[in-house]
Model the fold of this input.
Amino acid sequence: MLRKLFERCAGISARRALPAFRRDVFRSDSDAVGPAEGREVVLFADTFNRIYERENLDAALRVLVEGGYRVHIPRPASGSRPLCCGRTYLSAGLVDNARAELDRLVATYAPFAARGVPIIGLEPSCLLTLRDELLSLRSDETAKAISAHALLFEEFLVHEAQAGRLKLPLGSIAGKVLLHGHCHQKSFGAFKPVEQLLRLIPDLNVEIVESSCCGMAGAFGYGAETYQASIEMAELSLLPAIRRADPATIVVADGTSCRHQIKDGTERPALHAARVLAMSLDRAKSVSTPAPSKESIHG
Done:
């Protein structure tokens, strides 16, 4: 009933499930976590993961801290609402609103970029806004510095691994990952690092889905008039590949829209790569923790 009402009043297809609001949104009790002597990074808690899928940010934070990094989660100096990249405003053509959001973000991240601290994000469409649209709206040196230091989670960790600085105790995950790339990752050449990072996990078989856009494309997949086109795009290769996959296969997609489309189209969850790395950390801990002796069990 509510979906039909949304379709009539807001043009949102009644056939599309809406993201569920939750009370336990991602919040950090501290502006920085991790070892004080660790290499500094900034974690950009984007709106989508912060509100709807905080598990991804929790996993990324855990991976970075266990890797020995000092993770900053800075808040706006004004103490106002959390930071946003302005992507949704840009999608709706509200350029002035998007510029205002980016101005808040730039003011908050400027001190970190000035001293070369990487700015790490999880959602491709949000993080890559800092590498692209930000420079279309601002051409000052501060904006350029932030853009130059903006990296996706996988890009940063792969760079660290290649430099010999990545110290993560990754445990074996014997199984298979089916990996779908977000359009922004592909267009910015940022998809390969996802595969490279997942291949660092012992015994994990990584297979890439040969697909184009998942069809969701932000608000496009929600529209009553565009829903069917969205599904048809997903049915070209992505959804059939996931349906054919063994139930034990882990489906990985970094994009919020991609995960939503996969869930709606196949009833199978898709995970951000950060959560798969956290699983690998869990496996390493379970192997290194000795089983309790009979004496300890029976007293």
Q: What stands out?
A: The chain has 16 helices and eight strands. Residues 291-299 have pLDDT under 50 and may be disordered. The longest helix spans residues 95-114.
